[in-house]
């Protein structure tokens, strides 16, 4: 009796001795877990705060409230109202004349050039298209907000150090003085930069937008989905429900898994060789981009769809077969509808990855300067991640903030797609 | 079931569509080529697209060599119409073009680009000579005692290169070998310094290959850091590290003149005037090449040529000079302008 008591005491002593160590190891494990999560969160915060702090200012743009007299003498001296004549009229002169009314003392050639470059070089083109749309404006004075030149905008946003010598900065002493005078008259304000969402690419930061890239990415994703989803789902259904179990099918399965891990640049090379060089499809077109991304997403969709099919309980199949449904009726009327939400979720996540992909697009000529917004998948176009790449490489200072802004737009769409996937999963998920 | 069949049909249609589409005409000019000319060509293309009724040309930056390769693949809408180059076309490329039927090529020079060696404004301006650049960055240099013998480059600091230079580590950020800027830097600055050693220059007559290997190589043991094609990145790194030097095109110096400064090379600063007058020697010509056969087939080609060669574009006060292009002297300019208006083709390299 005392012997067993002794033994119990011995054991509890051993347990007690080890207890501290066990608690400590548990504590350490939890600690490591929390640290690694904190680490990830800190990185994410640094990443987002750096992008947002650099990019938020791109959503506004300095504008000048200007009265412009659309002088008939300059636009259409012969009063022909002929489109070709008006197209070649000197609209720059109208802009300069209007600016001169604010600063009549400007006379030398150098000063005139400086004064003209206060406002965006796109101003005259804007006037041109306004007049071409409505001839009745000729001879009238209009009051519009015109975009300031990117260098001036950078100064207003505090990105240019005016304490430096004049020769060492992008804007002159005259321009600084003029801008300050205009500010005192409340003619300059920071307005929402709608151009960022309504224009294609441009070499002038104040005229550049992401719409072209956005439309290009949209066309590509549509094509990716149309091509990859039906093929991927069909392959998954066949492999999961109909394929015989033999070595050849094993081989195919191993290869599909391998294909999902192939670096994306290789799909770009494949696209260049097959679609462009062999089939003769146009370079820089979203069609080719979409097909390349479809090849890339295809194995991901197969894997996700197979997982979705596997998660449908065998009792459903058994019941259907039990009441006399054929194999194909079982699969398409019972298993497939139940697996579809899971397939869609997997596909959307695969497509989100395709949206952020730039490496394969470099190979097929999507890294191009495209101003016109594409109107079909056959037109030349950029894509969102490529637009980020192009702007990051542009020498103009104004593109620094726009690069971050483009990243924010891209992240927004990625977030949208991923949250759609989660929403779909939660809405249609069936608990068995 | 019916639905999935129609989706399949759509997919197959999408796959077949391009086969018919590729035969269709093209109404947008396609331009490929040099990443150095890209910032200039894009400005011209944008202005052209916005001020005329033609579409804005699409420009892809492929590098000079890559651009000429695409350009020389043949005649027809699937091939580019124009290629930009930051060097002149080579005889081999003309031959390749001719093999594919691209025989009538119009050559147009648009101006010059200076290659600057710059550092942060936080540091002092450096005054270098080409010889010092060669001694600092070549993998093998002549023995300091004057013997006609090459030794592995022992220089670690600029002081080691020349006692007049500051005692800081040699750190030069520059483009990788695929870049045209690197080619020009190796040819103009490195080889220029190499040639100042008479016995190295003499090698050229005996063994051109060996001469090139000695004079145009850049050391790979650390001091020269390949910073990628992104010149903006080099500028940022220079700001972070005032001891480092960077090698890039003049246009990036123009855009960042508030934070970085160009070094003297052989006593000359890289300024607009010095490059334009030819005093600053590390500069190279920029070209673009046009397929004559495409003029008339692709709408707007002639007008685009006119826009690109107009006085308001590449003349002395043209809008590309604001972007950092160094215009040609007026004699040279009028020669190329008339070549463009007459559409006269390249008859051979002279």
Compact description:
The complex is a heterodimer of chains A (432) and B (350). Helix content of chain A is 66%, strand content 6%.
Kindly describe this structure:
The complex is a heterodimer of chains A (432) and B (350). Chain A is mainly alpha-helical and 432 residues long. Chain A folds into three domains: 2-56; 59-198, no CATH class; 211-428, MetI-like fold. Helix content of chain A is 66%, strand content 6%. Chain A has 18 helices and four strands. Chain A has a three-stranded antiparallel beta sheet with strand order 2-1-3. In chain A, α4 (91-102) crosses α6 and α10 runs parallel beside α13. With 350 residues, chain B is an alpha/beta fold. Chain B has two domains: 25-112 and 285-342, 3-Layer(aba) Sandwich (D-Maltodextrin-Binding Protein, domain 2); 114-283, 3-Layer(aba) Sandwich (D-Maltodextrin-Binding Protein, domain 2), CATH 3.40.190. Chain B is 42% helix and 17% strand. Chain B contains 16 helices and 13 strands. In chain B, the strands form three sheets. In chain B, strands 1, 2, 3, 4, 8, 9, 10, 11 and 13 form a nine-stranded mixed beta sheet that branches. In chain B, strands 5-12 form a two-stranded parallel ribbon. A two-stranded antiparallel sheet of chain B has the order 6-7. In chain B, α2 (38-51) packs across α13 and α5 packs across α7 (180-194). Chain B starts with a helix and ends in an 8-residue tail after the last helix. The interface between A and B is large, with 49 and 48 residues. β4 of chain A pairs antiparallel with β2 (58-60) of chain B, so a sheet runs across the interface.
């Amino acid at each position: 009796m005392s012997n067993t008591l002794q033994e119990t005491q011995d054991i509890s002593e051993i347990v007690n001795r080890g207890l501290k160590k066990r608690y400590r190891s548990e504590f350490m494990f939890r600690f490591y877990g929390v640290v690694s999560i904190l680490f990830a969160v800190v990185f994410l915060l640094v990443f987002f705060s750096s992008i947002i702090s650099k990019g938020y200012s791109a959503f506004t743009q300095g504008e000048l409230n200007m009265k412009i007299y659309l002088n008939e003498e300059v636009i259409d001296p012969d009063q022909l109202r002929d489109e070709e004549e008006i197209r070649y009229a000197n609209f720059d002169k109208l802009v300069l004349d209007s600016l001169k009314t604010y600063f009549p003392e400007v006379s030398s050639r150098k000063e005139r050039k400086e004064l003209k470059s206060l406002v965006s070089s796109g101003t005259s083109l804007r006037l041109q298209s306004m007049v071409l749309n409505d001839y009745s404006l000729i001879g009238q004075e209009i009051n519009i907000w015109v975009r300031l030149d990117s260098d001036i905008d950078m100064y207003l946003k505090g990105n240019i150090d005016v304490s430096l010598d004049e020769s060492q900065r992008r804007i002159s002493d005259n321009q600084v003085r003029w801008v300050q005078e205009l500010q005192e008259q409340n003619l300059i304000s920071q307005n929402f930069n709608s151009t960022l969402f309504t224009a294609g690419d441009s070499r002038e930061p104040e005229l550049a937008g992401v719409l072209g890239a956005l439309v290009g990415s949209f066309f590509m994703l549509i094509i990716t989905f149309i091509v990859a989803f039906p093929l991927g789902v069909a392959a998954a259904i066949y492999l999961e429900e109909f394929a015989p179990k033999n070595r050849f099918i094993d081989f195919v399965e191993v290869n599909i898994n391998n294909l999902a891990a192939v670096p994306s640049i290789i799909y770009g090379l494949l696209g260049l060789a097959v679609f462009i060089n062999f089939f003769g499809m146009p370079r820089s077109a979203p069609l080719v981009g979409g097909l390349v991304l479809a090849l890339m997403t295809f194995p991901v969709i197969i894997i996700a769809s197979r997982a979705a099919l596997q998660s449908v309980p065998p009792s459903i199949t058994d019941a259907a077969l039990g009441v006399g449904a054929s194999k194909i009726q079982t699969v398409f009327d019972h298993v497939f509808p139940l697996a579809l939400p899971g397939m869609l979720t997997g596909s959307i996540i695969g497509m989100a990855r395709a949206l952020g992909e730039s490496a394969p697009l470099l190979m097929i000529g999507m890294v191009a300067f495209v101003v016109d917004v594409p109107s079909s998948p056959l037109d030349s176009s950029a894509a969102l991640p490529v637009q980020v790449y192009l702007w990051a490489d542009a020498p103009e200072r104004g593109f620094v903030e726009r690069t971050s802004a483009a990243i924010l737009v891209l992240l927004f769409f990625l977030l949208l797609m991923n949250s759609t996937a989660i929403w779909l999963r939660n809405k249609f998920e069936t608990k068995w | 079931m019916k639905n999935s069949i129609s989706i399949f049909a759509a997919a197959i249609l999408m796959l077949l569509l391009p086969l018919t589409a590729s035969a269709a005409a093209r109404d947008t000019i396609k331009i490929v080529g040099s990443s150095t000319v890209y910032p200039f060509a894009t400005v011209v293309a944008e202005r052209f697209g916005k001020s005329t009724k033609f579409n804005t040309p699409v420009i892809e930056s492929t590098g000079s060599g890559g651009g000429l390769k695409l350009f020389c693949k043949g005649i027809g809408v699937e091939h580019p119409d124009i290629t930009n180059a930051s060097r002149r076309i080579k005889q081999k490329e003309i031959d390749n073009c001719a093999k594919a039927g691209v025989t009538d090529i119009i050559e147009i020079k648009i101006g010059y680009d200076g290659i600057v060696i710059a550092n942060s404004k936080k540091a002092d301006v450096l005054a270098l000579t080409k010889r010092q650049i060669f001694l600092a960055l070549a993998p093998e240099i002549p023995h300091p005692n004057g013997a006609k013998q090459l030794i592995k480059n022992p220089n670690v600091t600029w002081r080691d290169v020349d006692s007049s230079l500051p005692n800081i580590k040699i750190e030069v950020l520059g483009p990788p070998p695929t870049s045209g800027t690197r080619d020009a830097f190796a040819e103009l600055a490195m080889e220029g310094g190499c040639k100042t050693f008479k016995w190295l220059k003499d090698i050229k007559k005996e063994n051109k290959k060996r001469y090139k290997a000695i004079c145009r190589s850049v050391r790979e043991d650390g001091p020269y850091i390949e910073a990628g094609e992104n010149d903006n990145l080099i500028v940022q790194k220079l700001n972070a590290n005032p001891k480092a030097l960077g090698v890039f095109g003049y246009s990036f110096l123009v855009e960042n003149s508030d934070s970085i400064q160009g070094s003297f090379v052989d006593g000359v600063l890289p300024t607009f005037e010095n490059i334009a007058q030819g005093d600053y020697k590390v500069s190279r010509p920029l070209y673009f090449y046009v397929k004559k056969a495409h003029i008339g087939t692709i709408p707007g080609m002639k007008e685009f040529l006119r826009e690109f060669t107009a006085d308001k574009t590449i003349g002395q006060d043209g809008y590309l000079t604001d972007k950092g292009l160094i215009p040609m002297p007026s004699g040279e300019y009028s020669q190329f302008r008339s070549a463009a208006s007459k559409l006269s083709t390249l008859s051979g390299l002279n």
